[in-house]
Amino acid sequence: METPLEQVSFASTLRLHGFDGFRRAGIETLQVNVGKVCNQACHHCHVDAGPKRTESMARQTAERVIALLRNTPEVNTVDITGGAPELNPSFRMLVAEGRRLGKRVIDRCNLTILLEPGQEDLLEFLSEQQVDIIASLPCYTAENVDKQRGRGVFERSIASLRLLNQAGYGRPGSELNLDLVFNPGGASLPPSQEALEREYKQRLREDFGIEFGHLLTITNMPIRRFSDYLVRLGKEQQYSSLLAASFNPATVERVMCRTLISVSWDGRLYDCDFNQMLETPVARGISIWDIDSYDCLARDEIGVANHCYGCTAGTGSSCGGQLS
Question: Closest Cα partner for 315 from 206, 182, 202?
Fold first, then answer.
C-alpha cells in the first residue's frame, strides 16, 4: 500500500532529491524570540502567544545574547520577534546594542503595539535607531483581518501604519524600511507574492493613503495554535498532504535555517523559530551559556521534521517571504 504523502518524512524527501546532508552554510541572522507575551492572540500564531502568557526573556539572558553577538562578527542581522517583542523590558537594549554593533535590526511588529499604553515613544525610538519594521497585516480588508486577529485590530493597524508613514517609514526614498506580512486565512498556500504585493499597494494607497516597501508572503505552519485551528476544522490531514504534495526542491538551499540561528526567551538554541516552538533544540542541545560565539554552530546539521514541508511548499516560505 502506498504511504500517504503527509506520512512521508521530510528527511526522506530531502534524500530522494539528493540532499543527503542538511547543514548550515554559515550564520548571517540571529533571530531572538524574547517571549510569548503579546497584546494579541491570533488564530495563525505558531508561538501560541497572547496577553495571558508569562514567558519573557530576562535581562541577564538578553545581555548574554548581545555578548555572543559581539563575538560573532559574521552575523549581520538581528531579527527580534515574540510575542510582541516590544513588550519585553530588554527589547530596547537589544535594539540599541545591535545597532551600536553595526547590525541590521528587525522588529517583528504586530502594528497595534504602537497604540498600547506605555508605548507612546516607541515609534520615535524605532525611527531614531533606524530599525527595519516587518509588520503583520494578513489582508487589506477589516473583515479578514479581524477574523484572524481579533475585533478592531484592522482599524488599529491602519492607524499605526499611518503613524509609521508620518514618521517616514515605508515612504519612497526613505531609509526607514517598512514591509508587511501576509498569512493565508485558512488551510491554503499563499498566492504569488509579487501579484499580491501589487494588489496590497493599490488597495492600501487608494483606500487609506498608506505606503510600504514590500509584501512578504509566509505559509502558515501546522504548529501550536494554527494546528489546533486545523484540528477544529477537520483539515489537519488535508493541510499536511497539501504541504507535502507541494514540496519544491528549488527552495531547499534558500530556507532560512541555512543561515540563521534562533535563541529562545530562556536562552536555548534552535535551528529556527518553528523548531523552537516544537522544542526541538540544535543537535548539540546547548544554550547560550554553553558557547563563546554563535559561529561555533555555523556548520552544524539542521534538525528537520515534517513541519519543514511548510517552508519548502510551492514557492517556499521563510521569515523573509517566498523563496523562489
Answer: 182
Distance CA 141, CA 145 (A): 6
pTM as predicted: 0.94
Q: What residue type is 221 in one-letter code?
A: M
Q: Coil, helix or strand for 109?
A: strand
Cβ(27)–Cβ(294) below 8 Å: yes
Q: Characterize the bridge pairing of strands 29-33 and 132-136.
A: unpaired
Coil vs helix vs strand at 50:
strand
Sequence-ordered list of residues with C-beta below 8 angstroms from that of 46, at least 6 positions apart, any chain: 220, 221, 223, 224, 225, 226, 273, 274, 277
Pick from 5, 8, 10: which is nearest to 278 by CA? 10
Cα separation, 280 vs 70, in Å, equals 26
Quick: pLDDT tens for 217-274: 999 998 888 888 889 889 999 999 999 999 999 999 999 999 999 999 999 999 999 9
Beta-ladder partners of 80? 32, 107
For the record, the C-alpha cell of 39 comes out as: 497584546
Pair type for strands 77-81 and 260-263: unpaired
Residue 303 three-state SS? coil
Q: Any residues with CB less than 8 A from the CB of 203 and at least 6 apart, and which?
A: 140
Q: Pairing relation of β-strands 215-217 and 178-182?
A: parallel
For the chain, state the CA radius of gyration: 19
Interstrand relation of 132-136 and 104-109 (parallel, antiparallel or unpaired): parallel
Dist. CA 93–CA 66, nearest whole Å = 9
Structural domains of the chain ordered from first start:
26-238+256-303 (3.20.20.70)
d(CA 306, CA 196): 27
Report the C-alpha gap between 243 and 19 in whole angstroms: 19
Q: In terms of Cα–Cα distance, which of 239, 241, 224, 316 is closest to 279?
A: 224
